[in-house]
Design a protein that fits this description.
The protein is about 40% helix and about 20% strand. It has 11 helices and 14 strands. The N and C termini lie far apart (about 50 Å).
Length: about 350
């Protein structure tokens, strides 16, 4: 049993244009944090979108939710009938249960965007590549050696339940598959896809109703970063006829187009806050300095998340000529020094 008990949302049905029935099944991503998976019926073969984290009770919760689709909603679909598993993006809370589920339903083909495919097919390799990139990022951010090692330990621990798996189908932007339309929306994750199911958008972590999805700088991984994310928001804003979005977390988004405007405005405010901290400082600041001022009360792993969020905005400001590197001589001379920023 997990150490913290979460009250999960009830299994819920949503109907989409074209006759699709979409069932939302929820499970713990991590203690106190819920992720949604979606079973799509009557719209091509039975398809499961995302599989949860695999941590704690998540696998049992997912199986129990799928069983409720059968017993409480009268759908004659069991695990053996699900023909396809689509992973919306390569973050552990959305694909971590895949090893467990693949053993129970090996008949289901696994599909993911091509930019995230190696997260599944070469998981161990991708972990090592990501660890090196994160270590370099933390050094450039100016964190202490103790903090750096602590972050690396936590990052490595969160990847222990997964191993490489075969991918039967790689997805690309604007691909159509059995009525589903895939929209590649990088930024939060390189291979993030949103899925149009009739007039309903499965928005994964790209568009959420109450928070702006976590951002990390492109210096850690290509196709992330705030610039890519804002471009992807614009791409979805140009898609006509979205009645509702069902995200990977939280409640449905009733007005997707208005929510996109709100998210953009939120990032504009964050950019000005970050720039303002640097502008007011008498000394050049590292990304860790900026994050420590903006996120005073965060603790534990959330310190790393806050640092990545700040770094994504610092990177964007630097890319748009609003910040400059103050210690260029040190940057040129040293292998990987902490970068200090001033207003350009």
């Amino acid at each position: 049993m997990s150490q913290e008990t979460t009250v999960l949302p009830e299994v819920c049905r949503f109907d989409a244009a074209g006759g699709a029935r979409i069932y939302r099944v929820s499970c713990d991503a991590f203690p106190g944090f819920v992720v949604h998976c979606y079973l799509i019926l009557n719209y091509g073969p039975p398809t499961l979108v995302d599989v949860g984290s695999g941590f704690g009770d998540a696998n049992d919760q997912l199986l129990a939710g799928l069983e409720k689709v059968r017993t409480e909603f009268g759908e004659t679909v069991g695990l053996a009938d699900i023909e396809r598993i689509i992973i919306t993006h390569g973050h552990i809370d959305h694909f971590g249960g895949l090893s467990f589920l693949h053993e129970k339903m090996p008949q289901a083909e696994i599909a993911i965007h091509q930019l995230d495919a190696r997260i599944l097919t070469a998981f161990e390799e991708r972990v090592e590549v990501a660890k090196k990139a994160i270590r370099r990022f933390l050094q450039q951010s100016g964190v202490s050696d103790d903090m750096l090692q602590g972050f690396m330990d936590v990052y490595g621990y969160s990847k222990k339940n997964m191993h490489s798996l075969p991918v039967a189908r790689t997805l690309v932007d604007n691909q159509k598959l059995d009525g589903l339309r895939f929209i590649h929306t990088p930024g939060h994750c390189p291979g993030q896809v949103c899925i149009m199911v009739g007039d309903v958008l499965l928005s994964a972590d790209h568009i959420l109703p109450l928070i702006t999805p976590h951002q990390a700088p492109e210096s850690i991984m290509p196709y992330t970063g705030l610039g890519h994310y804002l471009e992807s928001l614009g791409k979805v804003a140009r898609v006509e006829g979205i009645r509702m979005a069902l995200g990977g977390h939280q409640k449905p988004v009733e007005n997707v187009y208005q929510r996109i405007v709100e998210i953009r405005e939120s990032h504009e405010r964050k950019l000005e806050k970050v720039w303002g901290v640097v502008e007011k400082s008498p000394e050049p600041l590292t990304m860790n300095d900026i994050s420590s001022q903006l996120y005073v009360h965060v603790k534990g792993f959330h310190v790393l998340l806050a640092l990545e969020e700040v770094a994504a905005h610092v990177e964007y400001l630097y890319q748009h000529n609003r910040l400059a590197i103050a210690n260029l001589d040190e940057y040129r001379r040293e292998e990987n020094p902490a970068i200090r920023y001033v207003v350009a």
